[in-house]
Amino acid sequence: IPLSRLADTKSRILVLGIGMLSWSGMVFATGFVKQTWQLYLTRMGLGVGEATCNPVAYALLAEYFLAKHRSLALAIYSSGVYFGGMLSFLGATISKTVCWQWEFRALGIIGFALVPVTSIVLQNASKSVQTEPEKQNK
Question: How far apart are CA 18 and CA 21, in angstroms?
Fold first, then answer.
């Protein structure tokens, strides 16, 4: 609930960026763990970063899409979990040839690179958002 409140009271793009940085940082840090307790800590930190992104993403989708397109946008966003699961099989195949720690390092770097791209895209999209007038039920 505090992360959802933060998404409603602060700049959503900034909160999303911080969440993505945290998430990517923990993925990257996972690539350097040597002991089990370090893995637990990095995975908990990853969960915090991930938990920051969902409330903000839902709020941004609701803000950027008209009501008639909103359900499709939310469905596409929600299906990302399943596509990510499918891609994890690719990661498992890669880890047979490359150390699993290098995979986490590479994914963390990709996540860091996506933060400014996401921020720029969202800022440009926010300039062109058109809102649909609310229809009152009579």
Answer: 5
Q: Rounded to an integer, what distance in angstroms lies between the CA atom of residue 26 and that of residue 118?
A: 19
The model's pLDDT over 99-123, given as tens digits with 9 standing for 90+, comes to 889 989 999 999 999 999 999 998 8
- String of b and e for 61-99 (b: at least 16 CB within 10 Å)? beebbeeeeeeebeeeeeeeeeeeeeeeeeeeeeeeeee
Query: For residues 138 and 136, what is the distance between their CA atoms, to the nearest angstrom?
Result: 6
- Which of 41, 59, 44, 42 lies closest to 3, judged by CA? 59
DSSP states of 25-63: HHHHHHTT--SHHHHHHHHHHHHHHHHHHHHHHHHHHHH
Q: What's the pTM value of the predicted model, to 2 decimals?
A: 0.81
